[in-house]
Structure formats: structure tokens, C-alpha cells
Specification:
The chain is mostly beta strands and 119 residues long. The protein has one domain: OB fold (Dihydrolipoamide Acetyltransferase, E2P) (Beta Barrel), CATH 2.40.50.1020. It is built from two helices and ten strands. The two termini are 12 Å apart. Residues 13-118 form the HTH LytTR-type domain. It holds the Pfam family LytTR. It comes from Emticicia agri.
Length: 119
């Protein structure tokens, strides 16, 4: 059976938000969005977290979790939350189960397609 997360069901990631540590399972993260030197984490059940760390920090934390992909300079998505994909020659969009539509960078479309086929 192929899994997208480590076999340990208690695997969590530690995030700092409001000066406090929060522990989140990777499957709870829908996407992460950069806001200058902050990162907004959009989670399941309509929850959000604001972190004082930049997106690159979280990209490094999530490298071992195969379902995450940086679709744009300012956005990392969890590909397990994709509802629909719209790809054209030079543009692309993903539609998430939570209702958001996010653009895929023109330079990342081919890598996105290859990674999505593996998921």
C-alpha cells in the first residue's frame, strides 16, 4: 500500500503561531500561503494559523511528505486536497476541496503534472 505520510500515525509537524507551538498532522494542511515574512496555513475544518516564519522554512519541513508541492512562489499545496485541475499550455489552476482556486506558476506546470501523476 502506497502512503503519502510516514507510517507513524502520530507523525506531526510543529508550527509556531502566536508564540505558541501547534502540532499539526500533514493531512490537515490544505495549503500554505506566503505573506511577506509570514505564512498562513489553511487547515481542514476552516481553520487557519498565522506563523512568523517564511514559506521556505515550511517547504523544508515538508520535503519528506510527498503530497506537498510548491505551485507558485508564494503557495505550497497539499495535493491530496485537490478537487480539480485545469491545465493549458502556459497557465494552470488547481481547485481545492475547500473551494479555493490557486494559480500554478507557468514554470512549474510540467513538474506539477509529473508529481501529481505519482500521487
Amino acid at each position: 500500500m502506497k502512503t503519502h505520510f510516514p507510517m507513524n500515525p502520530s507523525f506531526t509537524l510543529r508550527f509556531l503561531s502566536g508564540g505558541k507551538s501547534k502540532y499539526i498532522r500533514p493531512e490537515e494542511i490544505i495549503f500554505l500561503e506566503s505573506k511577506i515574512n509570514y505564512t498562513i496555513l489553511y487547515l481542514t475544518k476552516g481553520r487557519t494559523l498565522l506563523s512568523a516564519r517564511n514559506l521556505q522554512v515550511y517547504e523544508q519541513k515538508l520535503t519528506d511528505v510527498s503530497s506537498f508541492f510548491r505551485i507558485h512562489r508564494g503557495v505550497i499545496i497539499n495535493m491530496l486536497h485537490i478537487e480539480k485541475i485545469k491545465l493549458e499550455k502556459f497557465t494552470g489552476s488547481v481547485y481545492l476541496h475547500s473551494g479555493e482556486q490557486l494559480c500554478i506558476s507557468r514554470r512549474r506546470i510540467k513538474d506539477f503534472e509529473a508529481k501529481y501523476k505519482q500521487i
